[in-house]
Amino acid sequence: MTPAALVVDGVGRDYVDRKKVVTALSEVSFTVGRGEIVGLLGVNGAGKTTLLRIIATLLTATRGRVLVDGVDVAADPRAVRTRLSVVFGGDRGLYPRLSALDNAMLFGSLSGLPTKSLGPAARDALASVGLLDVADRSVGAFSKGMKQRLHLAVGLMARPALMMLDEPTVGLDPLETERLRSVVAKLPEEGVGVLLTSHNLQDIERLASRVVILRGGVVSHDLPLATLLEQSGAATTVVVLSDSPCPVTAEGDGGSGIRTLSSERTSEEALWRTEFEVAEWSAESLRELSRLWPAGAIKDVRVQPVGLEQVFNRLAGPRTGEDG
After folding, report:
1. Strongest mean pLDDT among 17-26, 53-62, 272-281, 288-297
2. What fold is seen in the domain 234-305?
3. Pick from 168, 256, 242, 171: which is nearest to 206 by CA?
4. Exposed end of the chain (fewer CB within 10 Å): N or C?
């Protein structure tokens, strides 16, 4: 039986700050299967960075264990590094005077690939990220998005069981962001497990099948993405632009399923912007909202499905002592 790409089992991490023991992680447990993309979320101070460093063999857990492809991180970190690739956001960590092909071959050799297989493996990796046609071009001439895709190619050279992606689309334009996401979306086809962290929640929404939320050093949620989105209790958010403020606050009582989130005047349009959560969007919901204003006061209605950002803001608020 093929082991999971990642098993985090009861992991805790303590450190001492001014002679006081502080717990950064407490009994954290979850798995990432082969061919699965799992999003890891948490506000600043929730413990994400500490956990990633433990998985990457850069930090030792105080208790619990981490297995990468069945290998214990603490017991055999060298073997773990041959099964793990870590890709950070940004364009550093490459040799700008070398070609993309040479960069991939260099890092492949450092990961222990046999010399005779470096060339074919590098070309395959570059092809998988859409860079084979520029394989002989110096990396210094690459755009930031191309460099980030090259980082992915370098990560694939080791044929990892687990790839950790930290802010993979940071600083990229929309076109390069979509290109990178399309590459990441194909990684499960290669049997790679992916642990993805990103402040751009659209990355998580577009790519992850499951989401783990850390809150105050513990796992508060570990759910399929679709199930997590249902935690909001709403199907859509509705923004109403009107030439007068909403005279009534909708509290969602009486079975209407409509709740007011905010109401403010916009400076650029001199209109009032009122945002609602709606449990189930329908023609009746629209009629219910329209009754809140005098006739002719509503100028525009914008409807969008509830996304991960709204759910995350509600579920992942900081605990006491946690950074906001």
Report:
1. 53-62
2. Alpha-Beta Plaits (3.30.70)
3. 168
4. N
